[in-house]
Amino acid sequence: VDEFLSEQEQIEQIRGWWSKNRNYVYIAILFCAAVVFGNNTWKTNILNNQYEASTLFEELTEEVVQSDLEAGELIAGTIYSDFGDSIYAKQTRLVMARLYMDQGRDGKAEDELRKLLVNNKNNEFQLIARHRLAKILLYQEKPQEVLSLLESHTNNAFQVPYNELIGDAYLQLGNFSAAETAYQIALQDTSAIPLVDSALIQMKIYDLPQQTIDDVLPQVNKEGERIQ
Description:
By secondary structure, the protein is an all-alpha fold. The chain is built from ten helices and no strands. The protein has two domains: 108 residues, no CATH class; 87 residues, Serine Threonine Protein Phosphatase 5, Tetratricopeptide repeat. Helix 1 packs antiparallel against helix 2, helix 5 packs antiparallel against helix 6 and helix 7 packs antiparallel against helix 8. The protein is elongated. It is found in: Cell membrane.
């Protein structure tokens, strides 16, 4: 507004500008209010969902402590259907896998863990799920599946415990040399909090069948010719 205009002229200019632009001002105010309200509503919904999911997960853990599989499955189903993309759904799969194993239902436990491995992101939940799944496969005496599951995923924070299970798999396959190699890698645990029981791994190495002379020396026939 021109400072040299009279007060009345300034008022008239303001009135004219307001008459032309007030609708735009109203729209801008309403838009800003809607954005603020929508953002607050969105944040409120997120918090409410997190609270509800965390409450359900807490109820689930109580049922797990009580070994109530039926009640646990009902709560888990609700978490999967209503909060399937949340961190609680991932935690639920780990918890349910443990509950199924406690109930002797290793197949169901395997299914829960495999659902956490549907992509190849190697996040913390997948690292844990892969480790627990490998244990189940060893329990099922499927060592080759353990190797397929773990050997291409040892370049991460779970390298040490993975190699212990790789050693166990080779032991089941009767490949004692490969088992010892994997165990030795597992012993190279430099983490502040040990990820494996070093004494147990040392015992596994000690218990490996020793090579016999026949394993080391070439086999020959009566004529002294080497047997292929």
